[in-house]
Description:
The protein has 143 residues and is mostly helical. The protein has seven helices and no strands. Helix 2 runs antiparallel to helix 3 (38-65).
Amino acid sequence: MNKLKILFLETRPHFLLLTPVCVFLGIAAAVYHGYFNPIHAVLVLVGSTFAHASVNVFNDYYDYVRGTDLLTKRTPFSGGSGFLPAGIIKPKEALALAIALLLSASIIRSILYLQLPNFITNSSSWNLSYLCVYTVTYEGSNN
Length: 143
């Protein structure tokens, strides 16, 4: 299996299906109320998917480095992707992927902020960003 495919599968794409469903519900509401913008819709869809994927990879990474994955019997819903315990990818690769996905989601969020400053300032977007930074920092310091 090539490295790109392995890194894609590390994001656990079968669990990422909920993100587009939620985004499309928001898009439907925007269309209904006459506020639809296709560029914003694509940015929200991609950014949300990157954020969700980063959480999946961070979860895999921290479960592995803390030994949780080594003690857990893998099922379709627990034990992560299984790539780290099997040695298919290195922990540093998983961490780099998670950070890259989170940074990509943050860049997209910033683009949306520049497009819609009043909307995003009044939403929980900033709180979510702070929570992500805090979680990564806190979790990273407890290895």
